[in-house]
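User: Reviewer 2 asked us to show a designed sequence for the structure in our supplementary figure. I'm pasting the structure tokens here. Could you produce the per-position amino acids so we can include them in the response letter?
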């Protein structure tokens, strides 16, 4: 699993220009990071063809902290013709490996919680289809989906202005974890019709478009694709900034493959 030279050229100008005598190119380092992301191995076990493990690790650390991979992801989003007619909102729980614990709080946010399943992190995501993520974030595993889903929607904001005269209905599809009144009202305020089934104990249940609701499988399929990368399936990273960088690289790689 590698990013080819042709694929790399699509994003090469987004990376910072190398300085000095660089023995490991950005392309080589990127594939080394991708190897760790996909296989879930330790940095010290990185094959020699990618260069010294410490060099690749430090390059990844700088890119994560400086938002380089986030800029690459945003660049790919801008170049895609993303259809936001039907968005899916969902979350998934990730187990935290013992190596992903123990960092000092002052080093940065750590969205790690303790629940019945042990130490876990949740990935919250809004997707346009089974390959296209719009926005994503982390939370401790025991947190409820509703508040974090609303934070994502607020950060995403209203959809881009529609062409004049076009009456296109937009939908937000989610499961019952987001059926609260506050979440549905926020979706309406942002211009989306919420397609969320009511809980069975609702005294005033509402009807919803069951055909549109079938498209909730798209965000679920995207999450399944993400979990094909072992460094996303299990959290080995102490700090949110590095775990988010691995998630971002998984989305970048998936987009380049499409």
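Assistant: Here is a per-position design you can include in the supplement:
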């Amino acid at each position: 699993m590698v990013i080819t030279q042709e694929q790399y050229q699509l994003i090469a100008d987004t990376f910072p220009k190398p300085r000095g005598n660089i023995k490991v190119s950005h392309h080589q380092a990127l594939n080394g990071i991708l190897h760790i992301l996909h296989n879930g191995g330790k940095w010290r076990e990185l094959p020699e063809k990618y260069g010294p493990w410490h060099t690749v690790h430090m390059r990844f650390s700088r890119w994560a902290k400086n938002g380089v991979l986030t800029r690459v992801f945003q660049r790919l989003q801008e170049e895609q013709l993303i259809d936001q007619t039907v968005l899916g909102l969902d979350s998934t729980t990730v187990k935290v490996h013992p190596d992903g614990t123990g960092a000092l709080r002052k080093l940065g946010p750590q969205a790690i919680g303790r629940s019945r399943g042990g130490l876990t992190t949740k990935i919250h995501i809004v997707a346009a289809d089974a390959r296209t993520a719009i926005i994503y974030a982390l939370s401790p595993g025991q947190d409820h989906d509703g508040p974090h889903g609303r934070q994502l929607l607020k950060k995403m904001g209203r959809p881009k202005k529609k062409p004049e005269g076009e009456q296109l209905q937009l939908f937000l599809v989610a499961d019952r974890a987001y059926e609260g009144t506050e979440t549905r009202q926020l979706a309406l305020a942002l211009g989306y019709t919420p397609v969320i089934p009511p809980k069975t104990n609702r005294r005033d249940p509402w009807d919803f478009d069951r055909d549109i609701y079938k498209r909730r499988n798209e965000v679920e399929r995207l999450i399944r694709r993400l979990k094909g990368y072992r460094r996303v399936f299990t959290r080995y990273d102490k700090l949110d900034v590095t775990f988010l960088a691995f998630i971002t690289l998984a989305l970048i790689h998936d987009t380049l493959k499409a």
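For the response letter, you might also mention the following. The longest helix spans residues 240-257. The radius of gyration is 20 Å.
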